[in-house]
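Figure 6 in text form: structure in, sequence out.
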């Protein structure tokens, strides 16, 4: 069993395993060379290129896990939403959900039929992934996918999504139920194809109050986690969600990944999960090497060697990050915790 998987179970490891959100991305020259002039959607859904992007990051950084190279949103395409990635804007949905009838029109297509490329991507990665490294599958959580589907693009205050949630509660719950089923099928396809763990990203859920999460989001999230195969560890991650952590854990993941805003050890104790992942500020990686190491040391000292810690960032690597700083971080975590 890999160090990553042992840590997922709260077991003692020879060193603290580490992998990083968005470890394959725009900060790497190899990423740009591989992507070339292809559109983002073409890149994400090409099993050969996506596998190579995931493998390149694991090899270059020597991290303990690779994560399937994909994006949260293409799962919405088989459901009937028209998604594109616009330069300088990001993902844009041309026919966003704005009315209950739009929810009724969404289709549930089997994952193998609608997103079968992800299974091939997984198999391609596993053919070349070193035996000491694990492979993580992932998907977006129902709330975050619903918010994207309604807003149609990135948002600062989620006005359209929250207004729909308040104004059309029956359609909102129907939307989240459909998304929960789609995500469950998508993650189980990845598990059946061989991933060793899965992570659910709820990128936007921190915008909700505690009572809103409990009322409008937790039921569908519980349904999602209960339907994911129990054969692999299930990780749940969000940002800006300090007030939601206990409620999120109660929806059924095996453990949580934390953002950089909370103290690691005391938060872990409060939640009570067997393992924890996180939680260095990704922007610290843009600073001098000395600061990178000081941030890593603070987190490791806080955890104090407790079994079950998987070192990661509290969000994704940003494009301005020097690759050498990322390598330095990985080497440091490995070396000082052996």
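Output sequence:
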């Amino acid at each position: 069993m890999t160090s990553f998987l042992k840590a997922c179970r709260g077991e003692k490891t020879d060193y603290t395993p580490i992998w990083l959100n968005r470890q394959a991305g725009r900060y790497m020259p190899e990423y740009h060379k591989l992507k070339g002039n292809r559109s983002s959607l073409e890149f994400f859904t090409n099993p050969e290129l996506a596998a190579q992007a995931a493998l390149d990051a694991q090899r270059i950084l020597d991290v303990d896990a690779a994560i399937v190279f994909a994006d949260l949103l293409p799962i919405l395409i088989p459901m009937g939403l028209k998604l594109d990635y616009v330069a300088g804007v990001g993902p844009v949905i041309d026919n966003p959900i704005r009315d209950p009838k739009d929810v009724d029109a969404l289709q549930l297509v089997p994952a193998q039929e609608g997103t079968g490329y992800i299974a091939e991507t997984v198999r391609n990665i596993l053919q070349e992934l070193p035996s000491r490294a694990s492979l993580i599958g992932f998907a977006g959580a129902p709330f975050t996918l619903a918010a994207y589907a309604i807003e149609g693009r990135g948002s600062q205050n989620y006005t359209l999504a929250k207004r729909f949630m308040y104004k059309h509660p029956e359609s909102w719950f129907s939307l989240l139920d459909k998304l929960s089923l789609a995500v469950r099928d998508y993650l189980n396809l990845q598990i059946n194809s061989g991933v060793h763990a899965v992570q659910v990203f709820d990128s936007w859920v921190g915008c909700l109050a505690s009572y809103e999460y409990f009322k409008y989001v937790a039921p569908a999230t519980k349904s999602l986690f209960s339907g994911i195969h129990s054969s692999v560890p299930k990780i749940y991650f969000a940002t800006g969600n300090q007030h939601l952590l206990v409620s999120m854990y109660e929806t059924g993941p095996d453990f949580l990944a934390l953002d950089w805003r909370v103290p690691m050890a005391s938060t872990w104790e409060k939640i009570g999960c067997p393992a924890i992942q996180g939680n260095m500020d990704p922007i610290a990686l843009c600073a001098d090497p000395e600061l990178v190491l000081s941030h890593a040391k603070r987190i490791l000292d806080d955890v104090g060697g407790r079994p079950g810690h998987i070192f990661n960032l509290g969000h994704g690597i940003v494009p301005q990050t020097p690759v050498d700083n990322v390598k330095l971080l990985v080497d440091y975590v490995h070396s000082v915790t052996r």
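Caption detail: The radius of gyration is 19 Å.
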